[in-house]
Amino acid sequence: MHIETFELERNQSLYENTVRFNLTESGIHPYTLRELLSEEQQQEVLDLRLGYGQTNGDPALRQTIADLYPGCGPDDILVTNGSAEANFVAFWSLLEPGDEVAMMLPNYQLLYGLTRSLGCTVKPFHLREELNWAPDLDELASQMSSKTRVIALCNPNNPTGSILSSDDMQRIVALAREYDCYLLADEIYVGSELDGRETPSFMGLYDKTIVVSGLAKSLSHPGLRIGWLAGPREVIEGAWHHHDYTSISTGIISQYAANIILQPAKRREVLDRGRALLRTNVPVVEQWAAAHGDRFHMIAPRAGGMAFMRYNFDINSSELVTRLREDKSVLLVAGDWFGMDRYLRLGIGGNTDELVEGLELVNEFLLELEGG
Ligand SMILES: Cc1ncc(COP(=O)(O)O)c(C=O)c1O
Description:
Aspartate Aminotransferase, domain 1, Aspartate Aminotransferase, domain 2, 8-stranded mixed β-sheet, 2 domains, binds pyridoxal-5'-phosphate, single chain
């Protein structure tokens, strides 16, 4: 089976731990276990028996996750190793060669590459910069056919930080209904909205909705590797069968911590911490971009741990990030990795001082680039 290189993840795998300033992260600064757990809970962790547990996820954790979604019960949930695995087992179990997937672009590359490797066709519909990164739904309508198995989107979106309006959500649901296809919504950035208004889920709007989410982004715990699928019973069953082939189950310690993070009061506390960080960092990046005049054009993100901006320097984006990494030990995401040259993505969910220092080094690099 041929699979395309996952440019973003490959570059992160190779370099994120070797550079001084890694500004590729799209999540929020992670917790330590000590910061997360009370002393009593830390003691409980020591007494956890490290078996496989229930392979589709601890029933109590599945109930906690189900409570996030209208009309869902624990059997409508599959707990996975990150939302990466949730996306993977969903598509691996649903798609047959020849199927089409109508896909929001730009988007996290996982589903794009996976769809193509499964012998299926991606039918893109684009977020348009001239519409403040709202989707072109006439384009979506024109991409739908009897072969459309799934409409796949990411809301709030990575990399633009945009959020669908409720009218756009309704129109997407209407198209899914008209063509009787699944609607897969990656909602891992729900809860990171700068204005504090949580983005409504697609769950409950349509009976063939599949939601992917997890703890890695808004919820600040990527290292626990906990994600999930919520959806129709037949999809969850099918994905669970496939999960038997990928990782069997998720870690017991991670599931224990997940069930703490997702309790309503703790979840609110974790999300508030993340939003406070974003509210500090977004203006930092906005001012930095504005100081470069018309060299950068950035629509401020409404949610998510990243800023996406167009640049006006005469250099390809992959070349820019490679030279920046080599010269200044700062890692950024190249627009090329989203199929959009002349754009850059910067992580804004981390430590503010490091962001400022990293951006100063980008300034030095750009000055040198201009100078020669
Ligand atoms: C939109 C989106 N979905 C899924 C993932 C994978 O996340 P996880 O760490 O939960 O596997 C990412 C990671 O960047 C992402 O941006």
